[in-house]
Specification:
The protein is mainly alpha-helical and 220 residues long. Helices cover 77% and strands 0% of the residues. It is built from 11 helices and no strands. Helix 10 runs antiparallel to helix 11. It starts with a helix and ends in a 6-residue tail after the last helix.
Length: 220
C-alpha cells in the first residue's frame, strides 16, 4: 500500500504542479500587468480554494466535472469517459487547491519588478513575448520558483478535495494522505507512521527550499 500510494502521489503531484506552474504564471501575469473589468472577481475566484474547506471545493468540482456535471456531462457524451474517481481527478483536485499559492507568489514577484527594465526592452524593439521571456521571467524567477515549490507541497498534502472528486481507491486514486487516513482507521499504525514521517520530511525540505529561494541574492 505504501509504495503504491507513493508512486501515485508522485504522478499526481508532478502533473498538478506542472499544470499549476503554467496556468498560475499566466494568471499572475494577467492580474499583475493588465487592467480589465472583472479583474478582482477573477482574483477572488482563483483565491477561493485557500479559504473554502477542501471538501466544499471538491463538491464544486464534482458539480463541474462529475458525470452529470456542467462540463462533465458533455465530456461523457462525447467520449464515454468521466474524470471522477480516476487519478486524473486527483491531479485536478490537487492542482485546484495549489493554484492560489502559485498565483499569489508569482503575482507578487511580477509586481515587484521595476517596469523600467521592460520599457527599455520595448524601446529596443523587443516584442512583449520576447520581453517576458528575456526580461520579466528572469527577474521574477525566484518568486515564481518559490510558488512552484509551495504548490508542490500543497498538492502533495491535498486530502479533502481529492477524496470528494477522486475517492479513495487503493492503487487507483489513493494518494499518501488518503493512505495515511485508511491505515489509521484500520489500526495499521506502523504504516501510518511511516507515511506521515515521509510527508513530514518532505514538507520540511519544501519549507527550507522556499526560504532559500525567497532570500534576496547577496550583493556582489
Amino acid at each position: 500500500m505504501i509504495w503504491s500510494a507513493f508512486k501515485l502521489s508522485f504522478l499526481v503531484v508532478s502533473v498538478a504542479t506542472a499544470a499549476v506552474t503554467l496556468a498560475g504564471t499566466a494568471l499572475a501575469f494577467l492580474l499583475a500587468r493588465r487592467e480589465f473589468r472583472g479583474k478582482e472577481a477573477l482574483d477572488s475566484l482563483v483565491t477561493l480554494p485557500m479559504v473554502l474547506p477542501p471538501t466544499v471545493t471538491g463538491y464544486y468540482l464534482i458539480l463541474l466535472l462529475g458525470r452529470r456535471g456542467l462540463l462533465g456531462q458533455y465530456l461523457f457524451a462525447l467520449t464515454g469517459w468521466t474524470v471522477a474517481f480516476t487519478w486524473e481527478a486527483a491531479a485536478i483536485a490537487a492542482g485546484v487547491m495549489a493554484l492560489p499559492l502559485m498565483v499569489k507568489s508569482a503575482r507578487a514577484a511580477l509586481e515587484s519588478i521595476d517596469r523600467r527594465y521592460e520599457l527599455v526592452s520595448f524601446s529596443l524593439g523587443k516584442s512583449e513575448l520576447e520581453t517576458f521571456f528575456r526580461v520579466t521571467l528572469p527577474l521574477a524567477s525566484r518568486g515564481i520558483l518559490a510558488g512552484v515549490v509551495l504548490s508542490f507541497a500543497r498538492a502533495l498534502g491535498e486530502f479533502g478535495a481529492t477524496l470528494m472528486l477522486a475517492g479513495n481507491i487503493r492503487g487507483k486514486t489513493q494518494t499518501m494522505p488518503l493512505a495515511i487516513y485508511e491505515a489509521f482507521i484500520s489500526g495499521e499504525d506502523q504504516k501510518a507512521q511511516i507515511m506521515a514521517v515521509v510527508l513530514t520530511l518532505t514538507s520540511i525540505s519544501v519549507i527550507y527550499l522556499t526560504n532559500v529561494l525567497s532570500r534576496p541574492p547577496k550583493a556582489a
